[in-house]
Request: fold
Amino acid sequence: MSGEHVTNNTVETQNLEGDLHSLKNPQKKQRVDINVLLNKVRMEQKKEKMESTIFFGLVAAVIVVTGLIFSI
Reply:
């Protein structure tokens, strides 16, 4: 029992107090998936579009209500 556990690209060592320390394998680089990044950007754009639509809808509603109040 050496106190080391290897999982995927991580080496976990246990010191005398029983604390686990994780060391990432520096030899293997993590890759970034462009589709994940594009999906995040699309979701942010969709959220911003929804927020702007709600804002302009509220502004239009206020204008209509104000017009109805002045017309009475």
